[in-house]
Amino acid sequence: MTNATESSAEPPALDGALLLPGDDGFDAACTGYQRAVSHRPGRVVAARSAGDVRAAVTYAAGHGLAVSARVGGHGPTTSLDGGVLVDLRGLTGVDVDPARRTARIDGGATWQHVLDAASPHGLAPLSGSSPHVGAVPYTLGGGIGLLGRRYGYAADHVRALEVVTADGVLRRVTASAKDEPERELFWALRGGGAGGCIVTAMELDLVEVSEVHGGSLYVDVAEAGDVLDRWRRWTEEVPDTVTSGVAMLVFPDVPGVPEELRGRHIAQLQLCVAEAGDADHVDRLRELVPAVRDTVRTRAFAESGAIFDEPDRPHAYRSRTAMLRALDPGALVRLPATVGPAAPVMCVAGLRHLGGAFARSPRVASAVGHREAAYLMSVLSPVAPTSEATDEEAATLHADVLAPFAPDTLGAHLSFAFGRQAGADVRSAFTPATADRLLRLRQRIDPGDTIPANHPLPPR
Ligand SMILES: Cc1cc2nc3c(=O)[nH]c(=O)nc-3n(C[C@H](O)[C@H](O)[C@H](O)COP(=O)(O)OP(=O)(O)OC[C@H]3O[C@@H](n4cnc5c(N)ncnc54)[C@H](O)[C@@H]3O)c2cc1C
Which atom of ligand 1 lies nearest, measured to the CA of 310? Predict the structure, then answer.
């Protein structure tokens, strides 16, 4: 193994493979689900071990190159130009310890890998709406999951992280690590986002959930213009076992889309009830909103991807977010008109109900921002080349959509913020003190910016 100061033509022998432009698999490694970002690295390390990640980082640091990792490719904000891309999709091991109710998850495992390994033991991770996103990148951003109001952010359940820092050293960081920078890194990586190191493995708690009552109620907005406010009032009454969200979108009128949704402006109410005894809350919501399609049923949590039923086709998109202390009914009632068929560019307005365990402080402090938020709002648009909309057109609409909610806005939530965000928005995801602390740590552990942050924090 070389160290950061040595230079060699290529990284040393790898368990995985080194891919150069033109090699089989190179292009596929450079593009993920988010098609607005296409990496153009000089080299791809298709990693199969933590040693491969060390070799890639050491090589990049030694040559003054940037290095970035990828799993599902749902969330990158910038293309890597030159440098080394570490493709973690071959590093997907999951070891479940049923007695301790924990899992050790490799840095490239998706939530589906974890769901499949945990479910035979009657256990579940605090995964989110899409089983295809990487468990590690999701958790680095906090992790707003389907069981979140019952158990909190995924980041609150991390016990240890194994990381390769920019100096090429593999470290195990925990709350009780001997070195102060490692304890600080443990704090930062739970909610502070990607940057400064590459996580090769993560150990986290699982919860005892094998089945949930979940799915979506699809409501035609033309039949219930105040559907969002009805959902809001319902969220004020439900217990912490009920986690829900809404996506509002106009479905295209094309074959492949369920007939009852085609061409309609729909509010998709996404529901996950962690305990069977609380399923009657779904019946109450059914009485409040006239659903044209209803997929809510008792299902194995391992199939929880069917709850939101998100598109699995890669596309180009950008979005903005707002963590809200409350949902203003007046702003909510006006929302369907702003994002509906008459919107200048297509968009999907999303709301997630937070509170419950999301709002409770974890045993060990973390960098998760705005715990007090009651709702998360996001607005997302497909952009070129997937649609004709430009980034600027999408950004203008997103600003208009979020403006009425400004009085209740605490700041952004970066996991759902797709595309490069304004520096002020990135900082707004944290308190000024937390943003400064994250920035200080990154400058300390990665002074050469070898592993750039996905959402770079500007100084105050
Ligand atoms: C359809 C969809 C549904 C989603 N649902 C949810 C949800 O329910 N809850 C939620 O909280 N979030 C959700 N997200 C956001 C998602 O968690 C983040 O975008 C996450 O980063 C995507 O994971 P990925 O595997 O695609 O990461 P990638 O896009 O591959 O990587 C994202 C960033 O993390 C870095 N990175 C990747 N792996 C590592 C690693 N091992 N160590 C260090 N850095 C790394 C990359 O370099 C990049 O900067 C969703 C996103 C989409 C598109």
Answer: 1
Residue with the smallest CA separation from ligand 1 atom 37 is 70
Q: How far is the CA of 200 from the centre of ligand 1 (A)?
A: 15
How does pLDDT run across 244-263, given as a tens digit for each residue?
A: 999 999 999 999 899 999 99
Which atom, in ligand 1's list, is nearest to the CA of 70? 30
Q: Is the domain covering 211-428 a CATH 1.10.260.40 domain?
A: no
Kindly state the DSSP code that residue 1 receives in the 8-state scheme: -
Q: Across the strands, what pairs with 380?
A: 319, 348
Dihedral of CA atoms 190, 191, 196, 197 in degrees, nearest 10, equals 40
pTM across the whole model: 0.97
pLDDT in tens, 344-362: 999 999 999 999 999 999 9
What's the confidence (pLDDT) of residue 409?
98
Per-residue pLDDT at 7 exceeds 70: no
Tens of pLDDT along 121-170? 999 999 999 999 999 999 999 999 999 999 999 999 999 999 999 999 99
User: What are the residue ranges spanned by the domains of the chain?
Assistant: 17-87, 94-208, 211-428
- The CA 87 to ligand 1 mean position distance, Å, reads 14
User: What local confidence, expressed as pLDDT, does residue 9 receive?
Assistant: 67
For 374, the token pair is: 């009651």
Residues 6+ apart with CB under 8 A from 317: 34, 36, 380, 381, 382, 383, 386, 418, 419
Q: Is the pLDDT of residue 4 over 90?
A: no
Under 8 Å between Cβ of 320 and 417: yes
Q: What CATH architecture does domain 17-87 belong to? A: 2-Layer Sandwich (3.30)
The CATH architecture of the domain made up of 94-208 is 2-Layer Sandwich (3.30)
Closest CA to 109 of 144, 75, 55, 72: 72
Instruction: Name the strand (E) or helix (H) holding 229.
Output: helix 227-235
Ligand 1 centroid to Cα of residue 9, in Å, is 31
